[in-house]
UniProtKB/TrEMBL annotation:
Region (Disordered) residue spans: 36-58
Name of the featured protein: Rieske (2Fe-2S) protein
Keywords carried by this UniProt record: 2Fe-2S, Disulfide bond, Iron, Iron-sulfur, Metal-binding
Biased composition (Low complexity): 42-54
Gene source species: Micromonospora antibiotica
Segments forming domain Rieske: 60-152
Pfam families: Rieske
């Protein structure tokens, strides 16, 4: 019996069949996540649903200003940005990928943008490292504010 025919549990399922089944499940999850959602839902934090377009400019609105709490922010991973509001009416954009080992940041809480892979924390004001192991700040992204709509510039 070769390695591909080693029984993996009750019954006669081979390792090859088990891996093929796992691959099919993974592909169906991926296809579901990338499917066409032809609805007009607003973008959602972290998961990023379809985004509405802002009036006249053609730029896709990522969020509304009211969606971003003062002293906090939201991660819009699918749109490739973290949006923060350090002080009332001041909005900042940052790359959502941690500079330590490339993990996506997971949330904005306690005045910092947080990567839960290795607990790096970045300032919501300028992306500077507040707590390592990261040693480089998050890259800033330019935002466009059009009324109450926020998009990438």
């Amino acid at each position: 019996m070769n390695d591909d025919q080693v029984l993996t549990g009750p019954g006669t399922q081979t390792r090859r069949a088990l891996l093929a089944g796992a691959g099919a499940v993974g592909a169906s999850v991926l296809l579901t996540a990338c499917g066409d959602d032809s609805g007009d839902e607003p973008a959602t934090p972290a998961t990023g649903g379809p985004a509405a377009t802002s009036g006249g400019s053609g730029a896709a609105a990522i969020a509304k200003t009211a969606d971003i709490p003062v002293g906090g922010g939201q991660v819009y991973a699918a749109q490739g940005v973290v949006i923060t509001q350090p002080t009332e009416g001041q909005f900042k954009g940052f790359d959502p990928i941690c500079t330590h080992q490339g993990c996506p940041v997971s949330n904005v809480d306690g005045g910092t943008i947080n990567c839960t892979c290795h607990n790096s924390k970045f300032a919501i004001t300028d992306g500077a490292v507040k707590e390592g192991p990261a040693t480089k700040p998050l890259t800033a992204k330019e935002l466009k504010i059009d009324g109450d709509q926020i998009s990438l510039a």
